[in-house]
Design a protein that fits this description.
By secondary structure, the protein is mainly α. It is built from 17 helices and 5 strands. Helix 12 packs across helix 17 and helix 15 packs across helix 17.
């Protein structure tokens, strides 16, 4: 029996770990809810709400194949050990993951356990991030090669394996506080597919112009970032949908193309940026905690102004544009890139706050929190690179 450990890849489509594992024997699809992860300072209730809906849809999708998702709550090694005792696990499968420092340390522990049990752990790639990269020469070409591969075929069926699931704890049981949202995005693959279609065919024509303003960006941006962060859609699926749409646009008479070609080109480039920034964290995990350039270690370290920080968090600085953006982000879990840069640079330069605490607060607020993108951008916007 093989375990497919779902992490930030909550789908069955274009899922290489699942597809490869099913070729080798019976598969147990597993999600481990790790309470300690949810107690980390970058995790919040809105992430958990989005996750719930993603897991519900994943469970339904797996059920159509004959084997529902098994959810276990606890420490990863303990969960895997228990399943191994009951089922004699032959291999562990999961996609390569570049996430926060806690998951990095957890994976090192899991790797030690796998070696102690002589269980191979296979980690196929699901995006354009390259592990053990020596230099960045040719990175973009390798990214395009990965994106242009044919999407992995979904298994037609799974053999049923008897293994009970745990009930998911409530956000209160996990110690996740109410955080002021009233209109965050819905999780689950169907929601992601609806957004992808509407962006490429209806909402996205003015993307190049309208993505920068918070007045227009909420509708004109793709809003796929949370679905990419949780993996309800693969970035390859999105890239190939863009390529297909581009081919359709080429067939439209010149006078009727509108601004679509520019919009798709701009968005496709940002898909590459997505992996480009995650690659930075993969190469240098310390940037979650330390300045990229040590020359800046002497700045903003002393006399952190808690009053300024509180005013910034609450959208009460007295700077209307900054305050409006912080209040919108708190309420919805999303803000366009240009405004994310503004609120962070305001905290770092105008309020002279060290980037670490504002970064954690923003991580809590972004439903689409992706550590590789987040910490690279936060440091760039704070001038510590």
């Amino acid at each position: 029996m093989h375990i497919v450990w779902f992490k930030r890849d909550l789908r069955i489509e274009d899922h290489e770990a699942l597809a490869q594992a099913t070729k080798s024997g019976p598969v147990l699809p597993l999600y481990i809810l790790e309470p300690e992860l949810w107690q980390q300072p970058d995790m919040s209730r809105r992430h958990y709400v989005f996750l719930h809906k993603c897991l519900r849809k994943l469970n339904q999708s797996l059920g159509t194949l004959g084997q529902k998702l098994v959810i276990k709550t606890g420490i990863a090694v303990d969960v895997l050990e228990g399943i191994h005792i009951r089922h004699n696990v032959q291999a562990l499968w999961s996609h390569q993951e570049t996430w926060n420092g806690w998951t990095y340390e957890r994976d090192k522990t899991v790797k030690i356990w796998c070696k102690s049990q002589n269980i191979p752990w296979y980690e196929p790639v699901q995006n354009g991030v390259i592990r053990h990269l020596q230099d960045r020469d040719g990175w973009a070409a390798r990214w395009h090669y990965q994106m242009k591969k044919i999407a992995v075929v979904t298994p037609s069926n799974l053999k049923m394996i008897e293994e009970s699931s745990d009930a998911l704890p409530t956000h209160v049981e996990l110690g996740l506080q109410e955080d002021g949202f009233n209109d965050i995005q819905s999780g689950g693959r169907n929601e992601g597919l609806k957004l992808l279609y509407s962006f490429l065919n209806e909402r996205g024509e003015d993307y190049t112009k309208e993505m920068s303003s918070p007045v227009t960006a909420f509708d004109s941006c793709s809003r796929l970032s949370a679905h990419l962060a949780f993996g309800t859609l693969s970035i390859r699926e999105v890239f190939q949908a863009c390529e297909q749409r581009n081919q359709e646009i080429k067939k439209i008479p010149c006078g009727d193309k509108g601004k679509w070609r520019s919009a798709i080109r701009s968005f496709s480039g940002r898909l590459r940026w997505h992996c480009h920034f995650i690659q930075k964290l993969e190469d240098e995990p310390r940037i979650e905690y330390e300045n990229m350039h040590p020359a800046y270690n002497v700045f903003r370290e002393q006399d952190f102004n808690d009053e300024y920080f509180k005013s910034w968090k609450c959208g009460m600085t007295g700077y209307p544009m900054v305050d409006a953006c912080m209040r919108a982000l708190t309420a919805t879990g999303w803000l366009n890139f240009r405004m994310r840069a503004m609120v962070m640079s305001f905290a770092s330069y105008h309020l002279w706050l060290h980037w670490r605490k504002p970064a954690l607060h923003l991580a809590n607020l972004f439903t689409d929190y992706e550590p590789g993108i987040h910490y690279s951008q936060v440091q760039m916007q704070s001038g510590t690179t």
